[in-house]
Write a sequence for this structure.
């Protein structure tokens, strides 16, 4: 079955009402974007969400996939002590992804999910009690080309599956957009974000453009989402999609992008 939904989302903990409190009002457009995506996932009766996070167990030259039989949302590091929802891993789909013929995929088993997975799943799945999860983390030292190739493999796995599947790239853009940025300011931050958004809106040339991005610009931007996004883009290769930016917010000095890839 073809891929049914694909999106880029931010994983800012401030989006969680119990964490962000009044500051959540600064991200109203992003909250609304999440609501739109959640409605789409529910409407498409998604059975499995493949979520790619930059904050899981990151290895240098291997991708990682969490095969924990029970995955729990964990936001305790941000003061949220509520009971986290539990999910089941889609072990059959993971087994098919594990057959990737590129760089090694390392299977790990961790019950508590990182916040790159936890925030999006908390916001997207309230009305999806039976959805299963495939939680993937990128590789620190592997190239963008390697990440794209993994995405292409995931595309084939999805096409050969009878399940109703969505893929979510969790990640933030530059962390250096303003003087109030938690990681400090750099003029390269805005340049990176503008370039990436421009490229994402040009599907015909997105692969070439992203592969040719200045590596120093990427490094100076202080992003945490590019490799997650590249895996998603690889999974979209040869599919007919139309990018739609639902929200892009910079009020907190970090680039929070929410983009839907209309399939």
């Amino acid at each position: 079955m073809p891929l049914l939904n694909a999106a880029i989302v931010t994983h800012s903990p401030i989006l969680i009402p119990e964490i962000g409190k009044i500051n959540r009002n600064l991200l109203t457009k992003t909250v609304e974007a999440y609501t739109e995506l959640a409605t789409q996932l529910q409407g498409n009766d998604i059975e499995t969400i493949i979520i790619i996070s930059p904050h899981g167990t990151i290895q240098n030259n291997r991708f990682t996939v969490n095969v924990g039989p029970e995955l729990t949302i964990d936001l305790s590091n941000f003061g949220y002590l509520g009971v986290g929802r539990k999910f089941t891993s889609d072990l059959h789909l993971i087994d098919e992804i594990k057959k990737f013929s590129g760089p090694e995929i390392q299977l790990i088993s961790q019950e508590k999910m990182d916040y790159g997975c936890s925030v999006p799943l908390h916001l997207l799945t309230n009305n999806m009690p039976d959805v299963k999860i495939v939680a993937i983390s990128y590789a620190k030292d592997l190239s963008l080309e390697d990440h794209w190739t993994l995405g292409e493999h995931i595309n084939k796995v999805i096409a050969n599956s009878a399940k109703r599947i969505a893929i979510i790239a969790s990640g933030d853009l530059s962390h250096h957009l303003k003087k109030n940025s938690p990681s400090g300011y750099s003029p390269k931050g805005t340049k990176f974000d503008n370039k990436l958004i421009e490229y994402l809106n040009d599907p015909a040339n997105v692969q070439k453009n992203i592969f040719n991005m200045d590596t120093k610009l990427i490094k100076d931007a202080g992003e945490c989402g590019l490799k997650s996004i590249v895996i998603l883009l690889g999974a979209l290769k040869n599919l007919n999609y139309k990018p739609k930016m639902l929200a892009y917010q910079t009020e907190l000095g970090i680039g929070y992008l929410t983009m839907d890839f209309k399939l």
Q: What stands out?
A: The chain has one domain: 5-262. The chain is about 35% helix and 20% strand.
